[in-house]
Amino acid sequence: MMPFPLHKVFLGWLMPLLALLPTAHAHNGQISTLSLSRQGSVWTLSLSASITAFNYELEAENPGLNLKELTPQELISLLMKRVSSTIEIAANGTHQVKLVNGAIHPGHQTDILYELEGMPDSLQALSLSLHSFSHNPNHSCVFLLEPTVGNNRFILTQGNNFTVSLQRKNATVFEPVKTNRVSVIPWLAILGLLIMVFFVWWVKH
What we know:
Low-confidence stretches: 1-26
Oligomer: single chain
Order of helices and strands: HEEHHEEEEEEEEH
């Protein structure tokens, strides 16, 4: 009796699912992709999300607005203004980066592209905030930093305020900046001890 080819069955249903992933990602209003890359001396930032995600933000930001009453040009102008005003980038701690020469490719998956002005020649640290989808608490953005150089992928959510701070680890890898958090527990313990000592003193006197 021939063994049942389980690996063939597995591949049979896995491959169609993998083929559908890009399409599903493009039309998912809960997910967007932000990519920062460099070609020569030019840095570019591209934001991709479903038109549903963008429309949700525009309606939440502008109560009472009927998007269907806008012309295509008015809608594009409103969308570009929203995105441009909700992205902040700082490089190497001191370089304030500007978004210039914005372009949009509207569709079911809408792509917005900017050139970046003010990026340093050698990127050592980066702070980035994306609040373009802040009205949707379930939204997640996959941030790709120099994807052609290394696998630098980070997730922006409401949990981290759609913000990430990174530092270069080596030639191809960036890592999140570690923050030193001071614990308040020891101080609370000391305060509790002082209160107890004072209470004992007060009872005795």
